[in-house]
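Write out this protein's structure.
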Amino acid sequence: MVYPRDNLGGFLVFCDMDTDGGGWTVFQRRQDGTVDFYRGWADYKTGFPSNLNGEFWLGNDNLYRLAVQKVYRLRVDLEDVEGNTAYAAYDTFAISPESQNYKLHIGTYSGTAGDSLMLHDGKPFSTKDRDNDDRTYSCAQSHKGAWWYTSCHYSNLNGLYHLGTHGSFADGVIWYHWKGHNYSLKRTEMKIRPAP
């Protein structure tokens, strides 16, 4: 349980105490396709489901409440269907409040997965029922996810759980600079911790 300093009450989180020295708060996990991530704004605002041991999204409101308190780092851990792993790390992470559509703010990249998130820096969050991207059509609807789309994406970790190579274009669990637009990852975790 964490209690942000805004005095709005606490909420449960999943802590990763093993990866790169630990101290991470996990806000997204994909691992088996049991949870539907093709959802609307309200679900991404509050988070889903309540079982933090499986697949989940912590909620954009909760993520904002955490990230506004101090400077955070972001780490994205990825695994393909063959068991190969890679990661992307960013030396700063923040999102704006809902009034600014949870706009993403990230810093300098390091890691082994390639930088598939910098394109999305400064972009607002979009869902299938709230289109905030740069296209005339909805990237969230076209690519079956919810993300900080631009026009449209290099990453789509909340996309459909296709598991491996798939024929449809860019609608899976995508990290383009590691596996391209037609490969859906097996496992992902997005996590933050305070910067030193």
